[in-house]
Write a structure and sequence with these properties.
Helix content: 25-40%
CATH architecture of the largest domain: Alpha-Beta Barrel
Radius of gyration: 24 Å
Largest sheet: 4 strands, antiparallel
Bound molecules: iron/sulfur cluster
């Protein structure tokens, strides 16, 4: 089937969301809600192609107002025309060609935002946002585009380098695969040699862990373009209907994963001066072992995949605490069950502040089921079920439960809804321990950047799989 930049030229419109006042587009008469027709006579499928055309220097742009049937053509020379867009992919997100046994989207409850059900496997969003892609839906033209435009780094879900096992775990659909070569992970890692690759392995107990894990790490280390490997555990929900029977990691199994990766790291540190493979926080918490020190995570390059988030949160010490508060207050810190113990330990010094009643509330995830314990997948209804109205003065939530740039949770509940229903102030607590303490003590508003949040990726990033 045809694909790639040229072949993505299907029916689609590129709506302009904003035109900067005083810009070349504005002066030419283009306004928001208009349609970008062509740039240098070409249809533009995504923001990358748009930027690439601008980089050519002298650029002709055609925009139209369909209702007035008005079309304007203008030219810029080495200048940003001033157009803004809501989306980054203008044609359509490339969907995956797989039916992974552990797919999170197949086990999602109903009623979430529509965008969360999109089985996005688009190399462009991998480059732009760091979402993981499997590569099995690429066409020859896509691979060529990645190489020609040096879309580096990319984030690749490898899972295992054992080809037979990988197929067994991912079960790609032959009719959706455009180029059979893309299902061969060894071949793909070599084809993409000029591109830096951050990889991940979603581990399933007794499937691709154990000796298979060690072997995969050994193999991945042989590719010069593979920068690192993130080992994350399979994420499960209670909505697995007619899906393979998968079990979550138990303590002993988690310890075995850590031991194997530790052994491999020791070897890599000697050979390459990097640990190369990293284990997610979830494995550490399940194993009962101490969360490693910051040094373990090197440059925290895979933090958005849950590798080092806990350590990063704890990195900055608590600020100097007052002996007492001017006004007494009761504060609830809402968190997923996974992180509750660590958070309780971290905020212990705040319990000595007179007038402050602080409660860490481990929220049971009724939306995805109790088996889901990460904070990032808590929905508004979970908070409402776990906290009584008027129970406290202030509820603090993690920025990771909000859709990027909004105050909206996974089930479309907003922070305002929570304020109204729970009859208390509800705010974002902070991206690290210091900020959290400052919010509690000083009522300071924090400027936060959610670590997850581009709509279609939130769920996959929070569940750490794809
Ligand atoms: S995990 Fe990702 S690649 Fe696998 S089936 Fe689900 S959406 Fe597709």
């Amino acid at each position: 089937m045809a694909s790639g930049l040229k072949n993505r030229e299907k029916e689609y419109t590129v709506r302009i969301s904003n035109v900067l006042e005083g810009s070349a587009a504005y002066l030419a008469g283009v306004r928001s809600t208009w349609i970008l027709e062509t740039v240098n006579s070409k249809k533009i499928p995504d923001i990358l192609a748009y930027r690439r055309e601008l980089e050519t220097g002298i650029v002709n742009i055609v925009a139209s107002e369909p209702f007035l049937q008005k079309e304007i053509s203008f030219t810029v020379e080495w200048e940003d025309p001033g157009l803004e867009f809501d989306d980054v992919i203008f044609d359509e997100i490339a969907l995956c060609a797989n039916k992974c046994d552990f797919c999170y989207i197949h086990q999602m409850p109903q009623g979430m935002r529509k965008s969360l059900y999109i089985m996005d496997d688009d190399f462009r969003t991998s480059f732009l946002y760091g979402s993981f892609v499997t590569l099995s839906n690429l066409s020859e033209a896509d691979v060529k585009r990645i190489l020609d435009e040096n879309l580096s780094p990319l984030y690749v879900s490898v899972h295992t380098t054992n080809q037979e096992l990988r197929h067994d775990m991912m079960k790609w659909w032959d009719y959706k695969v455009k180029d059979e070569k893309t299902t061969d992970i060894d071949l793909m890692l070599r084809r993409l040699e000029p591109i830096q690759l951050y990889t991940q392995m979603v581990l399933l107990p007794n499937r691709n862990d154990g000796k298979e894990l060690t072997q995969s790490l050994e193999t991945l280390a042989t590719y010069p373009n593979v920068e690192a490997v993130a080992c994350v555990p399979v994420g499960l929900t209670s909505h697995r209907i007619n899906l393979p029977d998968l079990k979550p990691y138990n303590q002993k199994q988690a310890q075995d994963v850590i031991k194997r990766v530790d052994q491999f790291q020791a070897k890599m540190l000697k050979e390459r001066d990097t640990r190369f493979a990293f284990v997610s926080d979830e494995f550490y918490i399940t194993s009962g072992l101490e969360i490693p020190e910051a040094e373990y995570y090197e440059d925290f390059s895979m933090i958005e995949n849950g590798i080092g988030m806990v350590r990063d949160f704890l990195l900055e010490d608590l600020p100097e605490l007052p002996k007492s508060l001017e006004e007494p207050k009761k504060v609830i810190l809402a968190t997923g069950r996974l992180f509750a113990n660590e958070l309780t330990k971290a905020v212990e010094p705040l319990l000595n502040v007179d007038g402050l009643e602080l409660i860490v509330r481990a929220i049971t995830n009724i939306t995805f089921g109790e088996v889901t314990t990460v904070t990032g997948l808590l929905a508004g209804r979970d908070l409402i079920a776990a906290i009584e109205a008027n129970e406290a003065d202030l509820l603090l939530v993690s920025p990771n439960i909000l859709k990027y740039g909004t105050e909206t949770l996974l089930d479309n509940t907003t922070l305002d809804d929570l304020r109204r229903i729970l009859k208390m102030d509800v705010r974002v607590g902070g991206t690290n321990l210091k900020e959290l303490a400052e919010t509690i003590i000083n009522d300071s508003e924090i400027q936060y950047l959610p670590q997850f949040g581009f709509s279609t990726h939130a769920i996959k990033e929070a569940s750490k799989q794809h």
